[in-house]
């Protein structure tokens, strides 16, 4: 019989898969043979078998393997962390003092300041209480730790975890020195590991006194002052050798937050902080009780500064970031900023002029202005009416209610849901829970298109739109455009009751002017040495659109209507189109105007530092609009007019773009708590014009807006091609 196919077989051999069957059509011959005999395995003799490691031996073996691999891993981590560490030896060899020169976009010198890398101070020349004041408040265990304090780190971690935010630091003085002077401001695990490694290196290489001397020479005391020597001269016009106990305590108190505790801008906060330092010094037996009482009673006299003029607000804003990037320079540094000194001067003059002429009568104590180019570069920054009187930067640090200046985010969310400027809503009674918002004049005006409600700042319509699209959608729109402050989805959100800084609110308007592109405010674009070596250069972020074509054009049409026929007629420019939005809070504490023209945005705020001091009925369409017009009129001289994105088709209701009427008055958000408690509403301005509610029309009104024919990409290119944004020749 012929066996066909693999696996066929007979008898016992079939179990072998047919290997002895036909393969390739050939018969295999085989014979039956007995299976091979299995060899008997020798049994080990008793007592001669191989002995195992046992439990403890096995544990020891694998423990050794684990330790070995952990060592390899630790060496790898060390190499990774230490691969790009700076050379700390160079710090002690430094004997000169390079300067930092700030220049504007045209190469003009803004200011020249001392760099944060002076040689170590001579501790023996200082009164003992000067360094001891710093140690008492910054690092009480300085002479007992090896660069880091595990107990302090654990305590800070626990406190911050309970608070849900960073409220306490655990860094030692040595860690601060390593972080501020060796490393960048990057927040990463590697940078933190480098900080700890450098701290240990410093402790092993230098004595405690040498580390303290280096720290006192390099630490930042605010107002552009690095080191105890420059700080003593800056604030008290004396050398550190002549500081009193109270002056030493005040300087030590600055280190936690130089801007917040600056004695020139806030003498009360600085004095309270100095008292805390004196209490700690007494508790640490650095001074006696009698010395503490004498120091508390001692009057402190500060030296006003004129350094940098009004641009000092701007320089203070970027100083810490520049210091972190510069690291350890070996020669003079030049920082190419985004500032335009001609625009800066115009901004300072506009603030001073308005507050000088009308500040007393209208009870306006302060003002602030910030201007941006289309890419987010800051062209001008005025943080207050007088830097010598107050170094507190209201542009970057003051959080105020924006009032109706927040409404663009509500309307943008509505436009993105399909509404248009000519969608109709009814201005009538509305209730959100138990709260019933009111208009400024206490009246309701019936049905109107959204463009009219926006230009006349009707509160009820804004609240209704916010409820239609959802408060979360409004918050998302604000976040997308750059607002970072906390925003709670409460009923009054649409009326601007959350607090924002002028910097973030004004920057959030830039996408409306630049074609819908996201921006991040920045103040410098390149840092180089005087010899030309580039130390750092800003890399422009990838373009990211945050407003689509249709909603952008619709919003800009409404912004233009605010200026041409709404609450901001005082901001009109005779030679170019303008868009913007006014804002006024219900208690007249804050008044805003944020406007733009052709890729250039400026935001203005006026009010008082004391929230309880109300202005004399100042609205966003009055003083802020006039400041904006005076500033922009000067800043735009010699710059060709450029439009902004407007709808491509004519409006379906030309009557909605009406000429100004007496009803176009600023409408103010009413605090629901105050309204519920008193039932009072702000009263409109008197018809005789003595009030501030009715904005005055510009005697030279701008031409009527016409439909835009450029694409968004063309608008973005036009904005980015502005001639004054090009960097000037290096100096």
TL;DR of this structure?
This is Penicillin-binding protein 2D. Pathway: Cell wall biogenesis; peptidoglycan biosynthesis. With 731 residues, this protein is an alpha+beta fold.
What's the arrangement of strands in the largest beta sheet?
2-1-3-8-9
CATH class of the largest domain: Alpha Beta
Radius of gyration: 36 Å
Taken from the alpha-carbon principal axes, the silhouette is globular
| Largest beta-sheet details | 5 strands, mixed
N-to-C CA distance? 105 Å
Number of extended strands = 12
What's the CATH topology name of the largest domain? Answer: Beta-lactamase
Helix content: 25-40%
Total of helices: 23
CATH superfamily descriptor of the largest domain: DD-peptidase/beta-lactamase superfamily
Please give the CATH architecture of the largest domain: 3-Layer(aba) Sandwich
Poorly predicted ranges: 1-32, 659-712, 719-731
Number of domains: 2
Mean of residue pLDDT values: 79
Organism: Candidatus Phycosocius bacilliformis
GO molecular function, one term: penicillin binding
Family: In the C-terminal section; belongs to the transpeptidase family.
Pathway: Cell wall biogenesis; peptidoglycan biosynthesis
Task: Give a structural overview.
By secondary structure, the protein is of the alpha+beta class. The chain folds into two domains: 91-335, Biosynthetic peptidoglycan transglycosylase-like (Penicillin binding protein transpeptidase fold), CATH 1.10.3810; 342-725, Beta-lactamase (3-Layer(aba) Sandwich), CATH 3.40.710. Helices cover 37% and strands 9% of the residues. The protein contains 23 helices and twelve strands. It has a five-stranded mixed sheet with strand order 2-1-3-8-9, covered by helices on one side. The longest helix has 29 residues, at 54-82. The termini are far apart. Mean pLDDT is 79; it is low at 1-32, 659-712 and 719-731.
């Amino acid at each position: 019989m012929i066996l066909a196919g693999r696996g066929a077989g007979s008898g016992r051999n079939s179990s072998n898969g047919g290997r002895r069957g036909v393969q390739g059509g050939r018969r295999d011959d085989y014979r039956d043979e007995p299976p091979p005999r299995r060899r008997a395995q020798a049994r080990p003799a008793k007592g001669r078998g191989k002995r195992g490691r046992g439990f403890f031996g096995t544990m020891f073996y694998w423990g050794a393997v684990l330790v070995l691999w952990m060592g390899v891993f630790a060496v790898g981590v060390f190499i990774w962390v230490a691969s790009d560490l700076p050379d700390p030896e160079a710090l002690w060899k430094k004997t000169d003092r390079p300067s930092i020169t700030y220049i504007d976009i045209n190469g003009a010198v803004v200011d020249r300041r001392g760099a944060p890398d002076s040689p170590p101070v001579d501790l023996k020349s200082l009164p003992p209480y000067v360094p001891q004041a710093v140690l008492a408040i910054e690092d009480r265990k300085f002479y007992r730790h090896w660069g880091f304090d595990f107990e302090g780190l654990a305590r800070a971690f626990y406190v911050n975890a309970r608070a849900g935010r960073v409220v306490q630091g655990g860094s030692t003085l040595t860690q601060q020195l390593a972080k501020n002077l060796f490393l960048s401001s990057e927040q990463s695990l590697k940078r933190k590991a480098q900080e700890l490694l450098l701290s240990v290196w410093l402790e092993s290489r230098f004595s405690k006194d040498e580390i303290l001397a280096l720290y006192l020479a390099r630490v930042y005391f605010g107002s552009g002052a690095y080191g105890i020597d420059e700080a003593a001269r800056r604030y008290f016009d004396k050398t550190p050798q002549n500081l009193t106990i109270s002056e030493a305590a005040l300087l030590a108190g600055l280190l936690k937050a130089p801007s917040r505790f600056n004695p020139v801008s806030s003498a009360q906060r600085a004095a309270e902080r100095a008292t805390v330092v004196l209490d700690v010094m007494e508790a640490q037996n650095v001074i006696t009780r009698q010395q503490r009482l004498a120091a508390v009673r001692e009057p402190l006299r500060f030296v006003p500064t004129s350094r940098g003029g009004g641009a000092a607000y701007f320089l203070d804003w970027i100083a810490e970031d520049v210091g972190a990037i510069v690291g350890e320079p070996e020669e003079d540094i030049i920082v190419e900023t985004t500032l335009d000194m001609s625009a800066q001067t115009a901004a300072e003059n506009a603030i001073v002029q308005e507050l000088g002429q009308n500040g007393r009568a209208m009870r306006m104590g302060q003002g602030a202005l910030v201007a941006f180019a289309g890419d987010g570069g800051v062209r001008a920054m005025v943080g207050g009416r007088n830097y010598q009187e107050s170094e507190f930067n209201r542009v970057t640090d003051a959080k105020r209610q924006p009032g109706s200046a927040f409404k663009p985010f509500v309307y943008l969310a509505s436009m993105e849901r399909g509404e248009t400027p000519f969608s109709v809503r009814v201005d009538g009674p509305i209730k959100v829970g138990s709260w019933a918002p009111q208009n400024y004049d206490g009246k309701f005006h019936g049905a109107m298109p959204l463009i009219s409600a926006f230009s006349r700042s009707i509160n009820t319509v804004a609240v209704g739109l916010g409820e239609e699209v959802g408060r979360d959608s409004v918050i998302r729109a604000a976040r997308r455009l750059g607002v970072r402050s906390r925003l709670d989805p409460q009923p009054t959100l649409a009326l601007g009751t959350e607090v924002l800084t002028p910097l973030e609110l004004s920057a959030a308007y830039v996408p409306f002017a630049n074609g819908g592109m996201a921006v991040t405010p920045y103040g410098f674009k390149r840092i180089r040495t005087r010899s030309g070596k580039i130390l750092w250069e800003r890399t422009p972020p990838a373009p990211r659109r945050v407003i689509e074509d249709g909603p952008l054009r619709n919003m800009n049409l409404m912004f233009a209507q605010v200026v041409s026929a709404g609450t901001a007629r005082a901001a009109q420019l005779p030679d170019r189109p303008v868009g913007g939005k006014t804002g006024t809070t219900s208690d007249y504490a804050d008044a805003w105007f944020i406007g733009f023209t052709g890729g250039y945005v400026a935001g203005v705020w006026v009010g008082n530092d004391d929230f309880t001091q109300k202005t004399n009925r100042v609205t966003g369409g009055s003083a802020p609009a006039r400041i904006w017009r005076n500033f922009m009129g000067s800043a735009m001289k010699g710059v060709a007019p450029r439009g902004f994105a407007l709808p491509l088709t004519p409006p379906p209701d030309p009557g909605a773009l009406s000429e100004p009427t007496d009803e176009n008055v600023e409408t103010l958000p009413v605090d629901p708590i105050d309204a519920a408690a008193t039932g009072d509403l702000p009263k409109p301005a008197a018809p005789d014009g003595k009030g501030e509610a009715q904005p005055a029309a510009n005697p030279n009104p701008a031409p009527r807006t016409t439909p835009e024919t450029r694409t968004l990409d063309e608008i973005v290119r036009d904005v980015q091609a502005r001639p004054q944004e090009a960097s000037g020749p290096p100096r």
